[in-house]
Amino acid sequence: MPNDNNQAPVTEVGLRSLKLRPGVALQTQGVAPGSPKKEAQFLAAIEGKGVMVGPHAASSGKASPLKAGEEYTVQGFTGQHDFSFKAQVIQIFEVPFVYALLVYPKVVQARLVRRSLRMKTSLPAKLSLAGGSGAINATLIDVSPFGAMVHAPSPVGVIGDVVNLAVGVNFEGELVGLEIPAKLCHSHKAEAGDGVHVGMSFKTVSQRDRLILHYLAQSSTEAV
């Protein structure tokens, strides 16, 4: 995943401070050596009481991947923090919906990955390697003042390369162009359809472009 702050240390925080939203994707793994990783989703938590974890959204309605009495390592990403904690499953429920109730963790290991939330968007963009010729048509799919993710038809450079991201933004009724140098942080196959998702962190950004990026992020409606 894109990393706007890859030097941040891991700290111990309370689960409540992460402000998890229902539906946040989780990965669970039994603490026993060789245990498989299972996809799940956060449903809710009551401080000091328990954490409700359901099956992955794509398999909702099916049996819980967790087992009562077993201990698991739970990992996730809030949009700003990577986090993980260990907890035992208290009980599995099937009504009114399928979920596992986990012991509420005393502390959570968290690391700040992004300095601000990325906001979903969908804007035509172009990517080109710094100093290279030609540009690849892409779609800007999320953005913050510090980084972005685009959907591209094919991989662009390698991790650590610097690219130029060009995108047009409707800024207070006027179309303005942004051209920002960015470092490639990761690239992976898109979950649906063809192409790849390319994550990047911005390098030097002018005050004017930073203002427009703040405007773009704030005018979008859904955090990622």
What does this protein look like?
6% of the residues lie in helices and 51% in strands. It folds into two domains: 10-112, Electron Transport, Fmn-binding Protein, Chain A (Pnp Oxidase, Chain A, Roll), CATH 2.30.110; 119-219, Thrombin, subunit H. It starts with 9 loop residues before the first strand and ends in a 5-residue tail after the last helix. A six-stranded antiparallel β-barrel has the order 2-3-4-7-6-5. It has a six-stranded antiparallel β-barrel with strand order 9-10-11-14-13-12. Residues 1-6 have low confidence and may be disordered. It is elongated and about 60 Å long. By secondary structure, the protein is mainly β.
The portion of residues assigned to helices is under 10%
Into how many domains do the coordinates divide? 2
> What is the CATH level 1 assignment of the largest domain?
Mainly Beta
Strand order of the largest sheet: 2-3-4-7-6-5
CATH architectural type of the largest domain: Roll
Please count the helical segments: 1
Low-pLDDT residue spans: 1-6
Give the oligomeric state of the chains in this entry, treating copies of one chain as homo and distinct chains as hetero: single chain
End-to-end C-alpha gap = 11 Å
Strand content: over 45%
Q: What are the secondary-structure elements, in order, as H or E? A: EEEEEEEEEEEEEEH
Structural class: mainly beta
Q: In angstroms, what is the radius of gyration?
A: 20 Å
CATH superfamily of the largest domain: Electron Transport, Fmn-binding Protein, Chain A
Residue-averaged pLDDT: 83
- Number of beta strands: 14
Gross morphology is elongated
